[in-house]
Task: structure prediction
Amino acid sequence: MPLVAQAFDTIADIYRKAERLSVKTIFQHMEPAFAAEGYRTEAADPPQRILVLRLDEIGDCVLTIPFLRELRRAYPDAQIDLAVKPGPYPLMEPCPYVNHVILAEHLPKVGSPMREFFEWDHAFCAAHLWEQHYDLCLVPRWDVDETYSLPLAYFCGARQRIGFGEHCSPVKAAMDKGLAAFLTRPILTPLHVVHEVEKGLFLLRAGLGIQPASDKLELWYRRSETDTAKARLMEGGVTGPYIAVAVGTREGRKTYPPELLAKALMGIRSNLPFVLLGGPGEEAAGAQVAKALKKASRPVLDLVGQTPLRQSAALVAMARLYMGGDTGLTHIAAATRRPIVEWWCHPMDVPTSTLSFVARFAPWQARALQIRPAHAAPGCEHLEPGFHEIAGCRSLDEAHCIAGIQPETIAAAAERMLR
Result:
């Protein structure tokens, strides 16, 4: 068994017998093993083997595309590998700026004990990372390290490890305490660097001295996927311009209630057909909206849960208008230059800051109207600083503040964008 694997087994055994595992203990066992097997030799300059860890959701990965493009421009001859979760994998797999997209399967759910992530790191490194002997590992996630990518950056063996430090925000400082020790160069962002695209590019500037040439989003999907998307439209009776609508999001608080969404769509005076999109688990919402629209004799094609991700991207790219909440399809719409109507759960009468999702995840460089509830729902009027102020609403699983958006407001915004 390689020395690195033996060292990992040793600290895993210590972890099983103890309540906690200190960074110092990890270093004491792993560093000699890394050095003995050549992982701690002087890194190549410029780096020849680079790993990017982006173990986040679809929208996060879309917003990382300028980062990947500028990294490749700076290191045209390097081997650049990208690790992503199964959700965004189909979208990132054709990326021309990386050599390999590594599928990070069976990652523990967010909120699982760190012990489970530790065990997963062992298996993932053994299967995909240790044999590569990376010179450099980059972690472009700015927010709380929910999937413990910073320890993984250390365990992969890279001599240089660059990511965002734990004091970027008060929430991150509390939740990620001590994790920045796994980096060789923790980066802090100045107050004027707000949007997630800007943060990724700042990481390149501050961490590697790279001056980005472009901050544009882009996407890649094959002509066959566009042809299949067009065929789905034809089969559903959609032969001309249409409005693409994402019916759900990953969190209940970000999802506009389907009964209100149906009213909003029926309030749009244009007779363009609606094409409903969404992922697995959102079929019931799609069916509810479609039923209400059909009852009102409005043309609608319900494709929720029926189209693979790149096909959904093609459908968004061909739409006259895109409508949706804070979800991956919204960032796909921005990347494909679609006009956007987006709704948020962040009330207008609750203070927000540059830490707010509204500021950090707004449709990048897109023609967009962002709609927020005028008032906080009961219980969210006086949110404590930190997580709730950032996320906009106390509720996680159910629509709460977002239900205060009037359907007429969304309809008016859509008509304005259509004009």
Q: What stands out?
A: The chain has a mean pLDDT of 95. The two ends are 66 Å apart (CA to CA).
